[in-house]
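Before drawing any conclusions, I looked closely at one protein's amino acid sequence and its backbone structure tokens, quoted below without any editing.
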Amino acid sequence: MHYPLFRPRRLRETETIRRMVRETRLSVDALIMPFFVVHGRSVRREIDAMPGNFQLSVDELVKEVKDTAALGIPAIILFGLPATKDAVGSEAFARDGIVQQAVRAIKDSVSDLVVITDVCLCEYTSHGHCGVVEQGRIKNDPTLDLLARTALSHVEAGADIVAPSDMMDGRVAAIREALDDHGFEETPILAYAAKYASAFYGPFREAAGSAPQFGDRRSYQMDPANADEALREVALDLDEGADMVMVKPALAYLDVLARVKAEFGVPVAAYNVSGEFAMVKAAARLGWLDEERTMMEILTAIRRAGADLILTYYAREAARILRQQAG
């Protein structure tokens, strides 16, 4: 029998050899943990569709953030739930808004942690849409000033990076101009550049209280069938001043993620979103999947596809495993 000169299995024989020749390495430095912050004190409400994740008051959030930082996770991203909502999402840009309070508290307690803030209006508006609504339509240009004011208020509170997720045209330029005009020209923008109108956001809308009260978001978020359009969206955001870009969701859009990284070569983030997290949790609870192996395989796939940064509700679990693996 003729045997091949090269046998790939030779380099798979032991865990040590596999580790030595591994092409893609997942690092805790790539992980970003999302948090949901609410008004009140001693509030810790578990999110039904996202086991292990909570709506937290600022005091409880600070405790969680300290534990997160202690695992070596370098950054978090904040989503706020307001005390009241109105048509323009006023608390989004209020100086004493919930995210602004949370940023100040975190920076007072864990100063070296990178705090990213989600810049959008959907959690704050009475209609649940990401922009100003006029006669049943989501209006692009009137929304830009509100987004810029929101981003500026976050940075004034101490945010290190702002991440606009609304998908309004021109919002990166509006935010960049507002930050620069107020002396924050060094603050980076992480743009949700290719954000798809996805079914995978369902659990998040429970967590953030952000479900639209009418219609849907397909007039401003991207059509899941389109990939070339994602490259155009990324190019526009970079031209407007984005420092980093994001693809969201991650798992169903690995092809888009890979194309964005290959085309632009800038730092790229991917959001391992709530629905992706919830599916693994549900299957694991039923005994259908090994949760730890599935989680690490998914995160490695996202990294392999080109993500430099991964926003994931599994950040802390992954960090613990990576720490154990490091010895």
